Amino acid sequence: MQGSRLSRFARSFTYGIWRSWRIIRAIRSYSGLYSTGLPGPCWCRPVQRMGWMGVKSELSNNSLGEPNSARDVNMNPGYEEFFHNHLGGYSMSEMYRTLKGLEELAGGSKVKEDCKVKIRALRKYFERKEGLSKNKKIALGTIGILIAAALGGTYYQFVYLPREEEGKKKKTLKFVFDTTRKPSTSFANSTDTRDLAAAFDYIQFLDANSTVIRSIEFNSGDEAYLREGWYPLERWGDMGAAWARNNSAIVLELPEEAHFLRFKANSIGRTNYGDSEAEFKELMANPNGMKIYLNGKLVDQVPLYGRMQIHYANLRPDLDSDGDGIINRLDINPRIPNPKPVNTDVNVGAYYLTGWGLGGQGLSGRTQNWDLGTPFHSLLGNYSSNDPDVVDWHIKWAVEGGVRTFLLPYTKPLWGWENNLEDGLLRAKFLPYINFLICFNPPSWSNSTLGINSTLLEKFANETVGYIARNYYEHPSYFKINNRPLLMLLWASGYYDRFGPEKFDLFISVIRDSAIRSGYYNYLVGDVISSWIGDDENSLNHAKEVIDPFDAISAYAILDAGEKWEYDERGNVHLVKPYDTMVEGYTDLSKWWSTQAKKYSKKIIPPLTTGFDNSIMYEKGIDNWLVVRTKSTFEGYKRMCEGIKPFIDPELKMVVGGAWNEFQEGWAIEPTKEFRSSYLDVLYDVFGP
Fold first, then answer.
1. DSSP string, 114-168
2. Is 210 strand, coil or helix?
């Protein structure tokens, strides 16, 4: 590197010397001193004025025949023009050095001697005016050349070369869209008439490991990157936004290690700025294609939809970034090696929560705000469930650990968790590797107006299940039994306890009829397995009434398994008991409920859990109840899996292995920094081939 700089400085020094010598060459060439003969007598023909040095009087000779002063010298008009047009930018000292050189060259014939006399007179005028002596001239001339060379070298090295190198590093990223649209005036009484293609929240540049190495958040100052095709930046609350029309360009210094783009954007919808309120099926049927060019080369194509979503794109399509032997442009997901599913004798499911990354405080932040704290931590860090790559990692780990189905808690269309489901899991590249199903979770457990009003809940169920049927059931990865989409009703026994058997049966009928109107007949599974068991008449009748409306039964979590509820002085649940008794309790409950299900020709999907611990939520005042099943171990979890194995239905061959990512309640089989993939290893050991 040092040698390279010395070489550059040498070239720059030479450049400075060359520029100084051009002055002399120009005058010599113009005057004809390089020719074999001098120009005619007109070469020194007097003129009345030399504007470049203020000469106005005629030439008069002293007794020696020399001009009295340079003020008496009259020059050829050609010289006057020459000095004005060609040398006007040079200093007096440069002129002086040039005249001195001409004086030395002139000589010989009388004409030349006359010219020499005139040149000497001009030179002496310069000498008097500038105070130049011969030694001074030599010194100043040398210094001038050195300064010129140094300045030239400095400019070349510190201005010209950096600009040239910066220009080479800067890349042009261009987005070309299929269509642009004018936003509707129905949106907030908008009068916007711009032709819009897409809105961007941010653009990130990722290395081969998907680490962010540069980010454009479209905040103040980011205008410097935007070229043609962008409207002025806007603010959406605390979020910066950029509006793009067709052929939108970004110019910036692109890191060499950048392999991918990650950006959050949406196309401009047909009826609004976006189609965020559109049903998922309709939303995904109307993409706006976006071609991505890097320095004029097409590197990827991405479909944008009317909802703000996370997207990925290749910058290095011909590389194999994830090292799986498939180049990026041919790889289904070039950032994550393709899954290698394992075969299992049993369909192992896991409850998959989609709220992470939404934020919120208190109860509204539960299972969606990482900042509230968790007892253990995902290998992916504090992720967002609406990121398709996050889901792809989960799918890869799941199918390689023997999990074949994700069960998705779902309350209401277009709410936070539900949008995350559509933007994340349903757009995941690896979704064909796994099945999913919906666990309808109506707010019948809450004390809200909706939660305590069965009529409102029926209407709520009708609308929600209709949406689920229209938008998800025909998906090729939706889990079906004999071509019937499986729908699980969470907290079903709680609904029965709150509203009684008649309203319970009516609620189940509404759910079934809503799917039928969309052309589907649900396979309905009830979350009814609880610790209410016994051989007494009440227990047996209760079991019959909660089992009968369903095709199969299961449970989300049985927190008091193997124990009796305990309460604090305020009457709130306060249960701190060993996980070992929970292990035995799950086994006993699976046995009892399996027997009851068979009585009524129903199936059972035995549940499992790795434990439970909501102590962080309790200590923060978010929960007024506390359940901790202490000292949970992998060995205990394996005993639980083996304990319920005899009660797996021989036709369904399905279990729920627990929650994939219920971190704030302390049970998760997702690989974590604390446990790695130990729980998945247990599932494979017990239920694998």
1. HHHHHHHHHHHHHHHHHT--HHHHHHHHHHHHHHHHHHHHHHIIIIIHHHHHHHH
2. coil
Q: Are strands 239-244 and 523-527 parallel, antiparallel or unpaired?
A: unpaired
C-alpha distances out from residue 416 to 276, 356, 386, 471, Å: 12, 10, 10, 17
Q: Are 464 and 510 in contact (CB under 8 A)?
A: no
Whose CA is closest to 241, among 211, 201, 206?
Answer: 201
What pLDDT digit, counting tens, does each position of 578-634 carry?
A: 999 999 999 999 999 999 999 999 999 999 999 999 999 999 999 999 999 999 999
Q: 122 and 69 in contact (C-beta within 8 Å)?
A: no
Residue 384: other Cβ atoms inside 10 A: 19
Query: How many C-beta atoms surround the C-beta of residue 541 within 10 A?
Result: 11
Look at the block and give the residue holding tokens 């239905």.
649
Q: What is the pLDDT of residues 88-128, one digit of tens each?
A: 445 555 565 665 666 565 555 555 566 666 666 666 665 55
User: Do you know the residue count of the chain?
Assistant: 689
Non-local CB neighbours of 25 within 8 Å, separated by 6+ positions: none
CB 407 within 8 A of CB 439: yes
CATH architecture of the domain covering 347-687:
Alpha-Beta Barrel (3.20)
Question: What residue ranges do the domains of the chain occupy?
Answer: 2-165, 178-330, 347-687
Backbone angles phi, psi at 434, to 5 degrees: -140, 160
Q: Cα(109)–Cα(75) distance, rounded to whole angstroms?
A: 19
> How far, in whole angstroms, is CA 676 from its chain's centroid?
26
